[in-house]
Amino acid sequence: MVENNINFHELIENKNWKLAKLSLKELGPIQVAQLLEEIDEEEVVILFRLLNREQAKDVFPLLPHYKQEELIEGIAHNKGLLTNLLNDIEPDDRTAFFEELPGKVTQRLIQLLSPEEKSITTKLLGYPEESIGRLMTPEYVAIKTDYTVAQAFEHIRKFGVDSETLNVVYIIDHNWKLLDDIRIKELLLADPAQTIESLMDRKFVALNALDDQETAIRVFRDYDRVALPVVDDEGVLIGIITIDDIMDVEEEESTEDFHKFGSFQEAIDSPLNAKPFYLYRKRVVWLFALVFVNVFSGAAIASFENVISSMVSLVFFLPLLIDSGGNAGSQSATLMIRSLAIGDVELSDWYKLIFKEILVALLLGLTMALGVSAIASFRAPEIMLVVGITMILIVLVGSLTGMLLPFIFTKLKLDPATASAPLITSIADIFGVIIYFSVASWYLPI
Length: 446
Prior knowledge:
This protein is mainly α. It has 3 domains: 2-126, MgtE N-terminal domain-like (MgtE N-terminal fold, Alpha Horseshoe); 142-242, CBS-domain (Roll), CATH 3.10.580; 276-443, Orthogonal Bundle (Tetracycline Repressor, domain 2). The chain contains 20 helices and 6 strands. It has helices spanning 2-13, 17-25, 29-38, 41-50, 53-59, 65-74, 79-88, 91-98, 103-110, 115-125, 149-159, 184-189, 213-223, 243-261, 276-303, 305-310, 314-342, 350-379, 384-411, 421-443, and strands at residues 142-144, 168-172, 178-183, 207-208, 227-231, 237-242. The protein has a 3-stranded mixed sheet. The longest helix is centred in the last third of the chain and has 30 residues, at 350-379. The termini are far apart.
């Protein structure tokens, strides 16, 4: 990829447009997208303008959003090129691009669309954010029950050229209500004179346009499909979603959850290309908020000043103990957030899990207590029992905090990933300090 990058840079420097265009034509869409990601904004625009119309249509959706914006800004003065690009790309890819733009910019770009494409885009953008309706495309093939197999293939040849996938054909009635779906393999193996109705089993899976996108991820995973139909509340077929769209959503959801668990305000597409102040803005809010949460840890330590001054050896084990609580909590939270995200666990299952988590946390706490007590027996035998009891209690509290917080956030209609590792660690720190010095005050002759 680097070699291609250098060659194209030289071609641009020498203004050898003919060779650059021929060289681009030899690359596949993914290779071109990778090339455009690695070069600067000015060269991106130059090379993109050298692509033929079909290449541009295929390459644009493969670029990260920030590169797409760069391109649109770079070719904005060329109204014909911009109009062709926006009209050519698939409706679902166009919707995904538009929904990330400021409203005014989106409205301006929509005006460049043909009446048909404008109607489709406006309809898709009218669905709620994060809904399946935003992902679907109206480009599919549907046939009627009274068609013969031969008539079905004639219909597919006539209308299938613009379909996003031909792996599955959808069967509808005269009101466009979805009746069934049929794989192209079944049509190929059927007698040409056989009717479509005779091939139907009426066993199909469909998504509702208003459902959340995470629902689609689960359904695709459960039923192992390459495409699924999308219907409205009355069962009318209004679009389809393909597996490539779902893979993009799953990647975005995973990235977003991962960043939230690290206390990022929003997901960051590319730290390599992001500006320092942008990275600062995305990270500062949570970190600044956690400063005030951690103030309580300091206050808790200050309230036990007499205990600490009477038994200085307690300080030696303080970081070890409170970190253990945070680590145990982060483990539990990671497990719960993942299970909630993929549907293995429902909100109503919290009470089933709490007793299991208590048992697991007690076993973990006992194991870790043996280890820390063994260390204390050499370093400070007088507090050996204190650190052992504290370890059990801290791991128990940390684990329960990590398990319950994702459920609490889900109940409050918040993303469970907001129960970030730094937040759990900060809460565990506060409880850890209070538990540790309370046990010390109770047990030691202070």
